[in-house]
Fold this protein.
Amino acid sequence: MRAGRAAMIWVMLVIPIVAVAQNITGMIEIKKRLSRPSVTGPVAIYQRGTVVRLGKDPEEDPIAYERSRVAIYIEGPLASPVTKTESPRPVHVEQLDRRFVPDFIVIPAGSAVSFPNMDPIFHNIYSLSKPKSFDLGSYDKGEARTVLFPKPGIIDVYCHLHPNMAATIVVTPNRWYARPDRNGTYRIPDVPPGEYTVVAWHKTAGYFRKTVRVEAGHDSIADFFIPANADPPGAAGGRLAGGSR
């Protein structure tokens, strides 16, 4: 009897909290290719020993590719970074076919990333980015090194031994973030009511910001046109380019 009453009280307390949380949704509009094509020198220039073929981009649609280089998140003191008890398992960024797979990830502050080497050659992963710099040293196939990312920011990752290898890690200040699908649609779920700054960051175009108000009963919309001069006539303002790595 007591257990049933306690369960009923818990449901009465939780349901209103869940009910008021809403979604922030929107569209990422990109009309042209923004990223520079990567140029990889012949293998002999920077590799000795075992020859490893160079992997190819899985996405062939240039606009879908640009959208895959966008991270959307909520800025400000919405929530504290992930704690040790909340931390999920490390995200894996493989070194495969002389590339990082995946080469663009988004994680909340406090998360860890594992860098397993899947190639039959040595790799030496490092970053000089201000939010988190590291050098994992050289390690062989089957080995992995893990890095913790306690602070938000943009982390550029490279390999000392293979100049063509590059990856980006976007570390967000909280768990409210998203990535657009191939069509540009994104959704940040379960956002508590309040006024927030939504940030869209593109690997080449940089930062775009927009203020939204989340209210109970309906979703909030924040569309972004990247780059800013691609905004249609009469588009709402609020997007500011800026930020640093």
